[in-house]
Design goal:
The protein is 24% helix and 42% strand. It is built from 1 helix and 7 strands; from the N terminus they run αβββββββ. Strands 3-2-5-6 form a 4-stranded antiparallel β-sheet, with no helix packed on it.
Length: 101
């Protein structure tokens, strides 16, 4: 019984370390989003949806940071509303970091 628990724990630990090493070796670009503090009188605007290539990836609250890895080079569309009124298109390169406020 003890041997099977130790064996299961060892396998789990090895798989976790291996998956982290593989995730770090995949080329990617990082997009960082920051939303400043929101006072209480602007309470109806609590979250800002973040869309990357027309897919909702996060709803950003006030005074928070969110980071996302993009695993493809080329053009990426980023918007903070569904109607794409605030959409920008940027050319993403591996190894670079992009910051949005």
């Amino acid at each position: 019984m003890k041997l099977s628990i130790v064996l299961a724990f060892t396998i789990l630990l090895f798989n976790n370390a291996y998956s982290r090493a593989r995730a770090d070796s995949i080329p990617h670009a990082t997009l960082h989003f920051y939303r400043a503090y929101i006072p209480k009188f602007v309470a109806p605007i609590k979250r800002a949806p973040i869309y990357i290539n027309d897919s909702l990836v996060h709803e950003l609250r006030g005074n928070t940071i969110a980071s996302f890895n993009v695993n493809a080079e080329g053009k990426v569309r980023v918007a903070v509303d569904k109607k794409a009124q605030t959409e920008i298109e940027l050319k993403v390169k591996f190894g670079k970091e992009y910051f949005f406020k």
